[in-house]
Design a protein that fits this description.
The chain is α+β, with helices and mostly antiparallel strands. The chain is built from 22 helices and 28 strands. The strands form eight sheets. Strands 3-2-1-11-12-7 form a six-stranded parallel beta sheet, sandwiched between helices. Strands 19, 20, 21, 22, 25 and 28 form a six-stranded antiparallel beta sheet that branches. The chain has a four-stranded antiparallel beta sheet with strand order 5-4-6-8, covered by helices on one side. A hairpin with a 2-residue loop joins strand 23 and strand 24. Helix 6 crosses helix 11, helix 12 packs across helix 13 and helix 14 packs antiparallel against helix 18. Bound molecules: ligand ME8. The site of ligand ME8 has 19 residues, from helix 1, helix 8 and strand 11.
């Protein structure tokens, strides 16, 4: 630790599943963690902020298969690719110090050692698992834990599952965990403690199945091939391997473990407050100081999920409104421990009220008046009045309360404090009426002091908003020309009577036209179709020419591949004439011959015969073609089998 630092501070986000691109719900937790990390840095702590990705498990293996790539290619694309996880954190201005991927070699090797250590100390043993498995959550459940027969976490169907597996003696730690939860501040908010104790510990903690044989995309158990380590052991230990536990890549364990806080979403509190401390107890390791379970962001009242199509795209929102406004909105609007309902209307209302009206206006009015009345330079001197002490007292109170709330992770309440100061400063303008003071030379000294007080309130507010809106506070410091040593946490003391040189800048947050923006957002948020169709032909065909084409229903009597051709299928067709018709069609990529025998298709029959690969083709089969996700798709036109061979289509 450096000599000047107040101490070390280690804070983490959950590591994200790169199974699909992240949405604003994921960004919520990371922005909160970022605000906390920036706040602690501002206070002078030596901060380590860890985030990363949780890349193993059946869900990823299945998705990769679906996409026709290897699991590693699949996760690489979502983590490193365009608009991937790393891009998103860059966009959201996330100041993480370390990024871990659970596929990193050092982590994989460390997990193998950790698993072996728990096996050797007798806390992991081999048995047979039979129970219910929720594939999307990668969680095994007992019958009693199911809710209406479904996964208690996500509400989806579970499957019967049985396999030889390793178990972790979670039951052994039940009493210690209950004591930890009930008698310490380990888990917050407090409401989550009751949930954990009543729903999971009191009904009886069962040993936990910690290996899988049903898929391979995971950390292999090195002493028992065929088993992979349960994804939650792999994932939870990231918090320590990223500091150098059981590996030589890093050496920060002594400085940063135990973690000061793990921020996690409410549905993964169980893993962090029961399983995680039990595993650490098993290895005799210090426990993290705190787990904080935040709420969910819903969208228009529903949980955000890709399948529901209601995910909010942080790229679209930050491009439109700015990253700082989005960061601010997330933490200003929703109390961190509770669920919140995200709507675009609320986002814009908050931007207009808090950022454009209260903060933006205060800054622009103040610097505009400085410019108009003093050419931007507020010299020493002036004339104080009783009213000014209101601001001074309030500013000190706001700073103290802000700090207390930040230390409790109550971001929205801490921001309320900042707005108490900004509101008061706006009111101070109305009370002091600078435009009237400016009318007479006699009242100019008073005007000078009024403007300095306004600058000072803004300066203090800018310090306090730094963790939330780092770019905005920088802009404010720039227009107020605040020297670096007065931009820091320790410069909170109210001291208006200094020389100010302010400059007029662009408005910080222009007012939004809500109706117009909503319409634009609606257009932008509509998912782009992944289906492409051929452009329509401009060329007209006259009716008589069209009528000359003879379309007929034909039945497939036989179908086979054509030797030495990847493309062609050879059809023997009943066209109702009593004589078989042969047609060759370049569709072998799309159909297996046996799938088509007996089907009723559509052929155009009066085309001149053509030779293909030395065989004659008398006509053409009709199909529908389109492109989906860049891939060509083809479907033969099939008719109801009740339509007889030879029926004319017109
Ligand atoms: O759970 N509102 O990963 P994950 C608020 N890999 N938070 C949300 C949210 C929403 N709408 N949607 C998701 C995992 N989150 C594990 C973590 S840690 C050792 C392993 C939050 O990508 C969610 O609550 O499914 C969780 O905390 C985080 O995003 C990552 O979710």
């Amino acid at each position: 630790m450096c000599e000047k630092c107040k101490g070390n501070y280690y804070i983490t986000t959950p590591i994200y599943y790169p199974s699909a691109n992240l949405h604003i719900g994921h960004a919520y937790c990371t922005v909160a963690t970022d605000a906390m990390a920036r706040y602690k840095r501002l206070q002078g702590y030596n901060v380590k902020f860890l985030t990363g990705t949780d890349e193993h498990g059946q869900k990823i293996e299945d998705k990769a298969k679906e996409a026709g790539v290897t699991p590693q290619q699949f996760v690489d694309n979502i983590v490193l690719g365009e608009k991937g996880v790393l891009d998103l954190w860059k966009l959201m201005n996330i100041s993480y110090d370390r990024f871990i991927r659970t596929t990193d070699d050092y982590h994989v090797a460390a997990i193998q050692k950790i698993f072996k250590r728990m096996y050797e100390n007798g806390d992991i043993y081999k048995g047979t698992y039979s129970g219910k498995y929720c594939k999307p959550c990668e969680s095994f459940w007992t019958e009693s834990q199911l809710v209406d027969g479904k996964c208690p976490d996500c509400g989806r169907e579970v499957q019967d599952a049985q396999e030889e597996a390793y178990f972790f003696k979670l039951s052994k730690y039940a009493d210690r965990i209950q004591d930890l939860l009930e008698n310490t501040d380990f888990l917050e908010p407090r409401s989550r403690v009751h949930e954990m104790v009543n729903n999971f510990i009191k009904p009886g903690l069962e040993d936990l199945c910690v290996s899988r044989t049903s898929f391979t995309w995971g950390v292999p158990v090195d002493f028992d091939p065929g088993h992979v380590v349960y994804v939650w052991i792999d994932a939870l230990f990231n918090y320590m391997t990223a500091l150098g536990f059981e590996n030589k890549k890093y050496s920060d364990l002594n400085d940063f473990w135990p973690a000061d806080v793990h921020f996690v979403g409410k549905e993964i509190v169980r893993f962090h407050s029961i399983i995680w401390p039990a595993m650490l107890m098993s290895l005799d390791l210090p426990l993290p100081k705190k787990v904080y379970g935040h709420g969910w962001l819903n969208f228009n009242g529903e949980k955000m999920s890709k399948s529901r199509g209601n995910v909010v795209d942080p790229y679209i929102l930050s491009e439109k409104f700015g990253v700082d406004a989005l960061r601010f909105f997330l933490l200003r609007t929703f109390p961190f421990g509770s669920d919140g309902n995200f709507t675009n209307e609320l986002l814009m209302a908050t931007i207009n009220t808090d950022l454009a009206n209260t903060l933006g206006n205060l800054v622009s009015r103040t610097v505009a008046m400085n410019q108009k009345y003093f050419d931007g330079t507020l010299e020493e001197g002036g004339e104080a009045a009783e009213l000014d002490s209101d601001l001074r007292v309030l500013a000190a109170d706001v700073c103290a309360k802000y700090e207390a709330q930040m230390d409790r992770f109550q971001f929205s309440v801490a921001l309320n404090e900042v707005f108490r100061l900004l509101d008061r400063a706006n009111k101070y303008i109305d009370e002091t009426t600078p435009w009237i003071l400016a009318k007479s030379e006699d009242t100019k000294p008073r005007l000078l002091t009024v403007m300095k007080n306004l600058c000072e309130c803004i300066r203090i507010a800018a310090i306090l908003i730094t963790p939330f809106m780092p770019e905005t506070s920088e802009k404010i410091f720039a227009v107020l020309n605040v020297p670096a040593d007065r931009q820091v946490w320790d410069a909170q003391a109210y001291c208006a009577d200094v020389v100010w040189n302010t400059v007029v800048g662009a408005p910080l947050f222009p007012r939004l036209d809500v109706e117009k923006e909503l319409k634009e957002l609606e257009k932008l948020s509509k998912p782009k179709s992944t289906i492409e169709i051929e452009p329509y032909s401009e060329e007209k065909v006259d009716f008589d020419t069209f009528c000359k084409s003879d379309f007929r229903a034909v039945k497939v009597k036989d179908c086979c591949n054509v030797k030495k051709s990847d493309k062609l299928l050879q059809f023997t067709l009943d066209d109702g004439t009593g004589t078989d018709r042969q047609i060759l069609s370049g569709i072998a990529r799309f159909y297996k011959p046996e799938e088509l025998i007996g089907k009723t298709l559509v052929a155009i029959t009066n085309l001149p015969p053509r030779k293909m690969m030395g065989r004659e083709s008398c006509g053409m089969l009709l199909s529908a073609v389109h492109t989906e996700k860049g891939e060509e798709k083809l479907n033969l036109i099939m008719l109801d089998d009740a339509i007889p061979a030879g029926a004319k289509l017109c």
